[in-house]
Amino acid sequence: MSAINGADMSIQDSSGEQTGGPRKAGGRLIVLTGPTAVGKGTVEAALRHAHPEVWVSVSATTRAPRPGEKDGITYWFMDEQEFARREAAGEFLETALVHGMSHYGTPLQPVLNHLAAGVPTILEIDLQGAHRVRQRAGELGLEVFYVFLAPPSFQDLVTRLNMRGTENEEQRARRLETAKVELASENQFDRVIVNDSVDKAAQALWEVISKEYGL
């Protein structure tokens, strides 16, 4: 079972006591999304390297870890049974079945805690997850700014997915079909950033964050 209730899942108040229970968000949540293989994780890592004060939510997933990935850092890895139990208990802000293969979800309480503390907070999630955040934002009192990370071209996306080498041919074909649908929805977002350069994309994302948080 994943140590999802570990230190990264919550923050402490000034008295040293761990915060608990739902809290109204005190800042604007930044949602970063985009199609498969567009480089969301790479841009997010570049952003955090340059601006470590930004907190990026760690998603939960039922897929198997890839080489080099670590539980609680890359994702909270868990089996389908644990994921379903936590989903039923209302522990996720959003969940999605991605490419018909694996479940992903955003643990809710850490997001609420960091926003309430005024920490710049980002979700890096797929398009399904972004739509589900839209559906729940009102009931949770969340103010959200949605950013879509786009490739320079669809062929660039194909090349990136092939170079990644983490999916078989059937999985790549499924992901690319999904990506075509996702790319058609980019006009639904507050800001579109084209990832033709990781550093430029990370800087553009920081400009969004600094404006929204008054940094």
Automatic annotation (TrEMBL):
The catalytic activity, as recorded, is:
GMP + ATP = GDP + ADP
Q: Name one GO molecular function term.
A: GMP kinase activity
Q: What Pfam family does this protein match (any one)?
A: Guanylate_kin
Residues forming the Guanylate kinase-like domain are 27-210
Residue span of region Disordered: 1-28
Positions bound to ATP: G34, P35, T36, A37, V38, G39, K40, G41
Q: Which PANTHER family did the record assign?
A: GUANYLATE KINASE, GUANYLATE KINASE-RELATED
Record protein name field:
Guanylate kinase
Organism equals: Bifidobacterium mellis
